[in-house]
Structures are given as structure tokens and as C-alpha cells.
């Protein structure tokens, strides 16, 4: 099934010494309070239990630190040792450490079991290395339902819905393992993400016919029907189960009602029992997406009536909702009432000013945040909303200052979105030379992301920089991607040629778009 994908390299050739250097360099040593002589006196099974205990307690650093000491004390370890260690690696954002653990497993012959390989599949997928996940999966001799589920959820986690359905189809064809509730839940989530009604209903029918536990699958089914706009079906699932006290299921149903603008049912559900904070937070997120001020205010009243306004996450949601609905005064009032402001609180308030065109106030709030007495440091998201505010308000010098501050003062690495905002700031000031110098510096590290060339093309179009614009257009036309992204590129390039008056090229782009049968989704960007 997956034989066409590249194979995982021979990890055993790598030196495992790097693992120990990486481990101690990342402060795992602070957890290493186990003297070697003590470890030698204990049997391996008890140490393996302690590794699992660290992981269950949410302490992956502790798991890795104990593992390092165990290996130093007794180099021969079992496959049961590596399973919690791989779980710890999956939780950490350091994929190289996981690869080094895999190399050690190969060296010791501890990667042969289904459990160990399932842990490897899960770890690689959580780091986004799906090719490696598939390679490990192909090497599993006795595939059980857990290994199939690990691969399926890995594709789903990384936004590969069609591939996830392919895994489910292969699992059904294999016929050697029984499909679990977790399998069906993952498939329903995939159908929801792809908004495919027919397949989702087929899974629902399978659940009913085979007598599966709908209480377990209820939330997934409600989310699915909400995502395709069938709230009547979502209601049938919820009320048919008679589990009114299930907070997660109720949360999903209320959020679905609001997302589909079914406000009457949403408020009715809230009134039937005292809502939980997380239900209101999720509902506010739906209000922000739809810019629904009326229902957002109703949720604010519910929160006030139930004494929830001391919850920072709820207040952050209220600020975001008011900001997206253009009510900056109300957002500011909520912000001022927060006693313990987090970086999310500050960022939400800055964003509220920025999206409503008040770049000056956004900068004032940002500078207030940066003062020592605030006790909060800005993160990469904070700088993104600040740069966006500067771009919208045309604050060029301030934008340059913030971009420099991000790298020099706070030692944060700008991402693609930060560079796109910064290019937008420079383009509005007509500083095309500075944009090109920035692009040349970025291009030294390899191929630039598609979004950067889109921003450069827009800047060239705005400033009538024909030569560089045509070069950016050429680079964009060389991009490979899915159909919708390719269609967006043709439209952008066509708009650039229209701006500079090359109507023959506009016609050529339109002909290519028509010939290839490409259609761009209205009002949708495929680049950010």
C-alpha cells in the first residue's frame, strides 16, 4: 500500500553520542537526581515503570533524564524502556532527539515489537515526518488496531484527510483487525475536516448497524454534522443519547449552533443547565469567526451572571470577539478588568486595535506591555499582530523598529508571516530596494516560501517595479501545489500584469487558467 513512499534512512549509522549531548544541553540534567550506584541496584522493570510514571505525570524532561542515566549505568535496555522514551520525544519539539533514540533501538535490536514500532509511528507523525511514519508502519509484521490507528490519526493530525481515509480503506481491506471506536472517531473527524457528507453518513450508519458505543462517538458525530451544516442531525444525535451532563458533547453542540447561526437553540441549550467556562470560550471563538456581536453579547451576559469573568481565557475570548466585531471600547473595558494579564491578553488587545485600523493605539499598548512592570514578555504572535497593525496603518518606521526589536532584543526568530507583514510595510513606503535586499538575504538559506514571493509580487505591483515583479511572477509560476493554490497563483500573476498594463499576458494567464480547468475559491487565500 505504501511501498511508493521513500524509505527511512539507516538510522543505526548515526552516533548515539549526540543524544546525550542534546539531552544535557536542553537542561534534562536538572532532573537527573538518580545516582548511578542507586540505579545499578534496581531492576530494569522498576526503572521502566518510573519512566512511564514521569511521562504520565507530564514530565517528558524527567523521562529523558532518567533514560540517559539508565543507559550510562546499564547500556543493555529492553523494548519496554524505549516506549515511554519515545512518548516523551513525541511531546518535545526536538525531532532529532527522537531519531537518536530510534538509532539506539536499532543498534540494540529493540525496535522489532509492534508496541515499539507503534510508538515510533506516533512520534514521527507528531513531528510531521509522515514518510518515516509510513516506513515504520510498513515494517510492522503483526499490525494491530493500535498501529493502524496511530498511522490514521497521524495523517489526520497533519491535515492529510484524504490520505487518512486511504489508510481506513486499507485497514478495512486488510480484514485482520477489528475496527475500534477510536478508528471510527478519527474517520468521522476526517470527514468533518473535508466536509464530505456522504462518507460521514456511511460511517454513522456503520456505527449504528454494528452496535458501537455512540456515547463514545457522540462528540465526533455532532462535530461532523455541525461542520456540514446539518444541525438537525447533530441535535438528533445529542438528544438521542440522553447524556445531558456530558460537557464536551454539549460544548460541541453549542459551538456548532453558533457556527451555523442557530442562535435560538444555542441559547436554549445554555439555559437548560449552568454552562461551563470552556463551553463559553469555544462559543466565543465561533462568534469571532462569524463576527456575530449580538450572540457574543449574550454570552458575555451569561458569563457575568455565572461569575466567570475572573477566568482569563474567557476574557481573552471576549476581547477577541469584540475586536473582530469592531467594538474596541468594549474590548478595552474587558482588558482593563483583567487582574492578571497574560501574553494572550495583551496580544488580543493589540490585535483588537490593529484589525480596526488604530495602529497608534496598538503600538501604545505594545509598548505598555514591554515595560518591566507588566511582567509579561511578547511572543512571536504578539509581534505578528503588531507588524500587521503597522502595515494596515502605514507606520513604516515603527514597523521597522518592531521587526528589529523582535530579533535583537527578544531573540525571536521571524517566521514567514512576519516577513510577509514586513514586506507589506516596506511596500507601502515604496522601499522596493530594501525589500529586494531582504529577499536576497533570505534566499541565501535556500528556496523561499510561496507566501514571500506573493508578498514581493504585490509590492512590485503597488510600486510598478516591472522587472522584479516579472521575476517574482516567474518564481511563483514554478511553484508546485494543490489545484486551489495553483489557481490562486495564476490569478495573482494575472492581476500583476493588469496593473502594469501588459494585457496580452493577462489574456495568456486567463487562457492557461481555463485550459487547466482551475477555479480559485472566492474570497479565499491559499498562501497564509
Which key features would you list for this structure?
528 residues; mainly alpha; Serine Threonine Protein Phosphatase 5, Tetratricopeptide repeat; 0% strand; globular; disordered N terminus
Task: Explain this structure.
Helices cover 71% and strands 0% of the residues. The two termini are 32 Å apart. Among the domains are: 1-142, Serine Threonine Protein Phosphatase 5, Tetratricopeptide repeat (Alpha Horseshoe); 447-528. It has helices spanning 17-25, 36-40, 44-56, 60-73, 79-91, 95-108, 114-126, 130-138, 145-157, 161-174, 181-194, 197-209, 214-227, 231-241, 247-259, 263-272, 277-290, 293-305, 312-324, 328-337, 343-355, 359-370, 380-393, 396-408, 416-428, 432-443, 450-463, 466-477, 483-499, 503-515. Helix 8 packs antiparallel against helix 9 (145-157) and helix 21 (343-355) packs parallel to helix 23. It is mostly helical and 528 residues long. This is Pentatricopeptide repeat-containing protein.
Overall pLDDT confidence = 81
- And the CATH topology of the domain at 1-142? Serine Threonine Protein Phosphatase 5, Tetratricopeptide repeat
Question: What would you call the structural class?
Answer: mainly alpha
Overall number of strands? 0
Structure annotation, total helices: 30
Major sheet size, sense and barrel closure: none
Shape: globular
The residue ranges in which pLDDT falls below 50 over 5 or more consecutive positions are 1-33, 35-41, 523-528
**Spatial separation of the terminal alpha carbons:** 32 Å
Radius of gyration: 27 Å
Keywords: Repeat
Pfam families: E_motif, PPR, PPR_2
GO molecular function, one term: RNA binding
PPR repeats: 144-178, 342-376, 379-409, 415-449
